[in-house]
User: Which sequence fits this backbone?
């Protein structure tokens, strides 16, 4: 039984538009342009050049619903990452640890292709390839970022505890251990030379 009145929620269903990745009646849509990711790409000159242009859309997050930020509640969203690069580096999300670091998450690939990059604060690094139909698990304590390595939008569904929260500061301050760059042989996962362990 719920212990507080605001823990009580009615069941509901949301539709995900599989053609676009949008949730048409989303509670909230967050738009991330390149200016929102300033400083996160490895090639600072390429980033500045792109920012001097049209400040391209990098990704949108469709938050399906709102829920009390308490243990037991789930949130879910879709993320639509546009195809594109800054220099050689593919468009990606900002990346975060969860503010409650032991909170987990499940990603389910819906469209396009990409990678889920993961890292722990004590130096473990991982990359999971995601395509339509793959389910990728973010374990407790792993920071995570997604990257579109394809030529069309990369779309995935994320399901996570409502009290997980976001720690973006650690990624902004210390960087991500890996980057994904494009070249003649396709996407390559390379170490980030400026990464510092948190
Ligand atoms: C939330 C989950 C996703 C991301 C989204 C955007 O825990 O991991 O919904 O928020 O993919 O990434 P970011 O790093 O900008 O929040
Ligand atoms: Zn997350």
Assistant:
């Amino acid at each position: 039984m719920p212990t507080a009145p605001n823990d009580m929620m009615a069941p509901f269903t949301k539709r995900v538009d599989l053609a676009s990745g949008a949730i048409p009646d989303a509670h909230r849509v967050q738009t991330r342009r390149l200016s929102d990711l300033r400083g996160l790409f490895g090639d600072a000159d390429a980033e500045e050049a792109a920012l001097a242009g049209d400040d391209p859309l990098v990704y949108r997050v469709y938050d399906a619903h709102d829920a009390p930020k308490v243990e037991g509640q789930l949130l879910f969203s879709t993320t639509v990452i546009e195809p594109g690069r800054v220099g050689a580096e593919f468009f990606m999300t900002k990346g975060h640890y969860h503010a409650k670091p032991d909170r987990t998450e499940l990603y389910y690939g819906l469209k396009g292709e990409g990678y889920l990059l993961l890292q722990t604060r004590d130096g473990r690094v991982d990359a999971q390839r995601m395509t339509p139909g793959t389910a990728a698990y973010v374990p407790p304590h792993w920071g995570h970022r997604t990257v579109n390595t394809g030529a069309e939008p990369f779309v995935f569904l994320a399901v996570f505890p409502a009290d997980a929260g976001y720690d973006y500061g650690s990624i902004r301050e210390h960087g991500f251990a890996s980057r994904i760059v494009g070249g003649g042989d396709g996407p390559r996962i390379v170490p980030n030379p400026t990464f510092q362990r948190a």
The two ends are 40 Å apart (CA to CA). The pocket of zinc ion (ligand 2) is lined by residues 96, 98, 105, 144, 160 (CB under 6 Å). Helices lie at 44-52, 169-174. The chain is about 10% helix and 35% strand.
